[in-house]
Amino acid sequence: MLIVGLGNPGPSYSKNRHNIGFMVIDELVRRNSAQKLSSSSFNGELFKFSNHFLLKPLTYMNLSGNSIQAVKNFYKIDEVVVIHDDLDLPFGAVRFKRGGGHGGHNGLKSTDEKITRDYVRVRLGIGKPEHKGEVSSYVLSDFNDEESRHLSGWIAHACEAIEHLEASSLEDVSSKFSVKQF
Question: Residue 128 to residues 1, 7, 23, 65, 131: CA-CA distances in angstroms?
Fold first, then answer.
């Protein structure tokens, strides 16, 4: 299984709402003592534990699919899980689904173009800005103080759900771990 967290590389983005996927991957690496693999040809940070690969594409969000496709093809991986921020869900929500549209999310759009839509999505709600014209600045801004207080518990919850995906069906994980807000 290839588990991908979407985000943007670099310290200026590390606490951004758009980087929640990277934050979950970092926690999965820590919890599972995942080993870093040489990954220069994959344009991403690649880790492995058990039979799972963890990937943080370093191509910036809009080109995430390039990195995902490279790892998927090289290791001949069938099952892909993509963890991403979702503006259509309130902060702290966790939802799961296979396939679907990209909803304007450029990381998903790139992934869909490179590996098709047939992958599991772990949708982490970040809420919406007040005005549609503020979407870019909103997703590229850091979580506020109130959100930050809940971040570690929310990330831990997402990790538990992802770890259950190997032994349980998507439907079971969805019914057990989906939350409306954390």
Answer: 31, 18, 20, 24, 8
Known active-site residue 164: no
The CATH number assigned to the domain holding 75 equals 3.40.50.1470
Give the torsion sign (CA, 61, 31, 2, 173).
negative
Question: What does the pLDDT profile of the chain (182 residues) look like in tens digits?
Answer: 999 999 999 999 999 999 999 999 999 999 999 999 976 789 999 999 999 999 999 999 999 999 999 999 999 999 999 999 999 999 999 999 999 988 889 999 999 999 999 999 999 999 999 888 899 999 999 999 999 999 999 999 999 999 999 889 999 999 999 998 76
Q: Which two tokens stand for residue 89?
A: 């869900």
Q: Could you say which of 18, 52, 105, 157 is catalytic?
A: 18
Model pTM score: 0.95
- The answer to the question of residue 182 being in a domain is no
Task: Please give the annotated binding residues for tRNA, written as ranges.
Answer: 13, 60, 62, 106
Q: Which residues are known binding-site members?
A: 13, 60, 62, 106
